[in-house]
Amino acid sequence: FLPPRSCALLLRGSSAGAVPPPGAGGGTAAGLAPTGSLVDRWGLSPAQRSAAGQALRFLAQAQEAPLPSAASNSPANVPAPRRSYHAGSRPPRFLLWAVTGAGKTEMIFPLLRYTLDRGGRVLVATPRRDVVLELAPRVAKAFPEEPMAVLYGGSPQRWENARLILATTHQLLRFYHAFDLVVIDELDAFPYHNDPMLGFAAEAACKPDGRFIFLSATPPLHLQKEIRAGRLPHAKVSARYHGCPLPVPERITMVGVELCLRRHSLPPALLRPLRYSVRRGAQIFIFVTRIRQIAAFSQLLRSYFPGLPIEGTSSTDPGRTDKVLAFREGRIRMLVTTTILERGVTVPKSDVYIVDADSDLFDEASLVQMAGRAGRSKDDPNGKVVFAAPAWTKSQRGAIRQIRMMNAVAYKNGFLKVKEVQ
Questions:
Q1: How far apart are CA 268 and CA 249, in angstroms?
Q2: What is the pLDDT of residues 3-61, one digit of tens each?
Q3: DSSP line for 229-277
Q4: Which whole-number Å values give the CA distances from 223 to 97, 130, 258, in the listed order?
Q5: How far apart are alpha carbons 347 and 414 in whole angstroms?
Q6: How many Cβ atoms are within 10 Å of 30's Cβ, its own excluded?
Q7: Residue 214: beta bridge partners?
Q8: Helix, strand counts (H, E) of the chain
Q9: Do 285 and 335 contact (CB within 8 A), yes or no?
Q10: How far apart are CA 413 and CA 161, in angstroms?
Q11: Domains, in order of start, for the chain
């Protein structure tokens, strides 16, 4: 059903109970140990495999408290004291804290398989339609035998029933106690982040004895505090699946976008790296702060790069989906956009330019996410990232510090093929 208006009749029903605990029967894989071949079959990297194994052990603790906090680099978990789970309390939660491009989607495949094989029902929710549309074919390919419903505003499948559902977070309002496993991707992203209504809907959609898996490269501070306090079990994945360091942003000093538009010119400090990116054949993201700047800045770029396919897009662009597809396929080489594409979009051989990087609209998490569009492909793992701004801010320094920290942890634990070049 659709979310009701105040004058509409609201009907609410509840699904059957959660899938049985290990060894209790009721599924094709009842009693299956959540390790070994269940992880092996997905071809995960060592870092991915460690994190997925910890999350599987969390799922296997039916009717018990979750495991204590542990990083994916830890050799083993230490069992937590057992306690009973009382219906009506918050479902147990687990956080997969993985760097951008670590392959979070592939890490949840063993979790989905484990729950589906035991007769359970699974929901994977992400904040934005763009990400849902990108994830859908990847999930369908991984589970070809499992009918899947894909739900978003205007989705043609909104009346279909399935055990595997991929949806935007607003679609959670349609469900009540319906899922044994709820996976919330990019929980720190708009509109899920800081929206109590969607958080309430997510908990209501999970069965009382169900499980939550959170995915994020930049988890909110309150969750980081829960981790430090030992209240939130988690696995930290500090390396990308291809084993190369995260690209560390370069800083260039240049005037703001508005002044560039008034002068009808771009500074040499920006043009030099842009020309390098064009020569090397990269797909170029250019992030700006304002939707109103996109058309004019795109036109200004065309005057410097005649013949190069350059477009702009934003949340208000009805052709956004087609432009992102064309960009991914190389038919558009330079895409001017806002933070609407800061996450969930993977484009091979990408370079990233963030202009007005000193803006208050770009916090540390946003800068990390935008920088994370570069270097995601194993064929081009060393993409270029540029912070271009008149001033050097706390958010820019924090983003670079966070990226370097993750690289250092990954190298220390043997997950990188080469050390980051300082």
A1: 18
A2: 555 666 666 655 555 455 443 433 334 444 455 667 888 888 888 998 999 999 999 88
A3: TT-S-EEEE-S-TT--PPPPPEEEE---HHHHHHHT---HHHHHHHHHH
A4: 10, 25, 37
A5: 27
A6: 16
A7: 95, 184
A8: 12, 13
A9: yes
A10: 44
A11: 37-237 (3.40.50.300), 250-412 (3.40.50.300)
